[in-house]
């Protein structure tokens, strides 16, 4: 199996949802960094609820990003939760060369 790491030139930070607090707000685990390719492009997508939503960026990584994750792109302040983004849509694909890549639209 190959690796696409030479194409993943950006570093993003993610935190995975761990549950809900007493007040019902989501809680997140520790932040981790992953290598990714970030493209700032716009695309009209359907979100998990069937609503049309405009995505402003796309990231591709060998590490899976879940729809419930919180993501900080390069340049975002990771100490500020309001600068994070939540994926609108996620996917997975295998390349003919044997790479498994994950995509997330934010």
Structural features, described:
- With 106 residues, this protein is mainly β.
- It has a single domain, classed as Thrombin, subunit H, CATH 2.40.10.
- Helices cover 0% and strands 45% of the residues.
- A hairpin with a 5-residue loop joins strand 9 and strand 10.
- The mean pLDDT is 93.
Report on the biggest sheet: 6 strands, antiparallel
Q: Could you give the count of β-strands?
A: 10
CATH domain topology:
Thrombin, subunit H
User: What is the number of helical segments per DSSP (H or I, 4+ residues)?
Assistant: 0
Q: What is the CATH C-level name?
A: Mainly Beta
Q: Over the alpha carbons, how many angstroms does the gyration radius reach?
A: 14 Å
Strand/helix succession? EEEEEEEEEE
Instruction: Categorize the overall geometry.
Output: globular
Structural class category: mainly beta
Low-confidence stretches: none
| Percent range of helical residues | under 10%
* Spatial order of strands in the largest sheet: 8-1-4-7-10-9
The proportion of residues in beta strands is over 45%
Terminal residue distance: 28 Å
- Count of domains: 1
CATH architecture: Beta Barrel
* Mean pLDDT, all residues: 93
